[in-house]
Amino acid sequence: MEGHSAPARESALLDVLRVPDSVTAYAGLAHPVALTRSQDRWQASGVEVAFEAGASGMPVVVSSPGHELTHLHLRWAMDVAAHSILLLGDHWERSYGDLAWRGIVPERVMPWYFLTWDGVACHGYGVKTGAGALCFWQMDAEGVSLWFNLSNGGEGVQLGSRRLHAATIVSRAGRPYDEAPFESARRFCRLMCEKPRLPESALYGSNDWYYAYGKNSARETLRDAELMAELSSGLSVRPFTVVDDGWRDAARFPDMREVAAGIREQKVRPGIWIRPLIAPRDTRAELLAPGTRFGAQKERATELAYDPTVPEALELITAKAREVVEFGFELVKHDYSTYDLLGRWGSEMGASPTTPGWHLHDRSRTNAEVIRDLYLAMRKAVGDKTLLLGCNTVGHLGAGIFESQRTGDDTSGQHWERTRRMGVNTLAFRLAQDRTFFALDPDCVGITPSIPWEQNRQWMDVIARSGAALFVSPDPAAIGSEQKRAIGEAFRIAAAGGMGLQPSDWFDSTCPERWSGSGGTARYRWCGMEGGDPFAG
User: Fold this and answer.
1) Which three-class secondary structure state does DSSP give residue 397?
2) Could you tell me the strand order of the sheet in which 520-523 lies?
3) Segment holding 273, helix H or strand E
């Protein structure tokens, strides 16, 4: 059994599937709306929160014809202090090298779900994917809280007569002693997402970002495709070559149809990056999300973004996706949409995914509904045969819509410390979402002269053996015969679905070094003899 030694006591499952002990609605956090309980409902004039019976959880339904609600706070009183436990939460969108098992931190924001480990069993608590609100959990010594952000932009949503299915609360008890915590986590993720949309085969190949950083070209793209063809020779599952940002420069990419066709001629599958919400300078103001969403970060408002609640704007957004599919690309990596819509990176959100005091054009839907509707529109735009890979997207809302999700912030082709911090952390602490929510993409292996090969070799190896999506950024200046042999072997493992490698020491480190799977155990040395540079990247 991995983890801390088990004490001689029974493991307790917190009861979050009963009606909460208190419910508070807010029309702005400074304006609470007092609710009183009537059996399985909490009510006030113009507000009702109903807790309905469900076969696999407890649906929470909100009505507020008399108020423009921003938040809902559910509270269960429990004697949490009686249990010595560690907790692992998730993140709003990508993670930022900060996921970890920790003791009780009352102010800690745990978006979507959290796990507990008490030395006996690993239990899970969360909301099902596809929720109608942005949800996060908190735990302190006296109980558990679940917060629903019901806002439209940074102001109250105007539901009118509509009943909002805000979320379905679920929990799962791990089996004491005979179920490893990682397996408990995976089974709980499967419970939260009943119908993941998965690719038919493993995802692997190249992405040019971490050696080109936007200075790519059609010639370099076709060179990457040729290398992918060489290194995947004999494999029935074909790799991808993904063209990242920079391809709209007509001088370097005169004909994207020819680029897609050229990749395909190598028996490699073409993929491409887009930023769907970004808008040109001459865009009419009524199509744009308000610049006030950035709050005090006014310099960010120079990058204009479409408001997806405006039908004409949504058409312009999805047209970008249809365009690249018409070019012949089979994978669309869409990026920046959470930042462009809400004005914050996930690392800046905390308890507030966006700045108060602004709203979208259509105020009748919550931010969570707007985001999920955007994802569904992207799905419709690319069709069923094209793969969608979300980056800076909300995995809990994209599950069941995207085939793959970038689950961590950028790795690097310049600073190993950034790859170690961001990449290893998201692979270890979100790997339970792989093939339960989507195909997990922990980001690329930036194979360049700036990164020690031994570090990149290990990073590539752990991704391949874990079964996650494996993309390399191969700078020709760093690719020799040794690198080719290692990449080819990693591709062989990845194409076969990996070897089930899982973190073994994830209770003890944010950057696990010990991993185990069907092929045995592995020890990775991420920091080397000199340790990590805390100031790099």
Assistant:
1) helix
2) 502-503, 514-517, 520-523
3) strand 269-274
pLDDT at 9: 54
* Pairing outcome for strands 445-447 and 470-474: parallel
pLDDT at 381 over 90: yes
Three-state DSSP at 428 gives: helix
SS3 20: coil
Q: Which tops the pLDDT comparison, 6 or 482?
A: 482
Q: In degrees, to the nearest 5, what angle opens at C-alpha 275 toward C-alphas 421 and 91?
A: 40
Q: Which of 158, 164, 156 is nearest to 70 (CA)?
A: 156
Euclidean distance between CA atoms 535 and 537, whole angstroms? 7
Phi, then psi, of 167 in degrees rounded to 5: 180, 165
Q: Which residues contact 181 (CB under 8 A, 6 or more apart)?
A: 2, 3, 115, 117, 122, 174, 507
CATH superfamily entry for domain 204-504: Aldolase class I (3.20.20.70)
pLDDT band at 55 (very low <50, low <70, confident <90, very high): confident
SS (H, E, C) 101-159: CECCCCCCCEECEEEEECCCCEEEEEECCCCCCEEEEEEECCEEEEEEECCECCECECC
Distance CA 323, CA 319 (A): 6
In order, the DSSP letters of 465-478 are HHTS-EEEEE-GGG
Beta strands in 316-454, from DSSP E residues, in sequence order: 331-334, 387-390, 404-406, 439-441, 445-447
pLDDT at 388 over 80: yes
> Any residues with CB less than 8 A from the CB of 303 and at least 6 apart, and which?
278, 340
The whole-number average pLDDT for the span 459-473 is: 98
Q: Strand runs (DSSP E) across 364-488, as ranges? A: 387-390, 404-406, 439-441, 445-447, 470-474
State pTM to two decimals. Answer: 0.96
- Checking if the pLDDT of 439 tops 80, the result is yes
From residue 468, alpha-carbon distances to 25, 180, 404, 434 in Å are 40, 20, 10, 7
| Residues composing the chain | 537
Structure tokens, 138: 């908190």
- Give every strand in the sheet of 32-34, ordered side by side: 32-34, 22-26, 71-77, 143-149, 134-140, 110-111
Residue 58 to residue 148: CA distance in whole angstroms: 15
In angstroms, the first-to-last Cα distance of the chain is 36
β-partners of residue 75 are 22, 145
Closest CA to 107 of 77, 67, 147, 72: 147
What ranges do the domains of the chain cover? 22-190, 204-504
- Measured at the CA of 381, the angle between CA 379 and CA 384, to 5 degrees, comes to 55
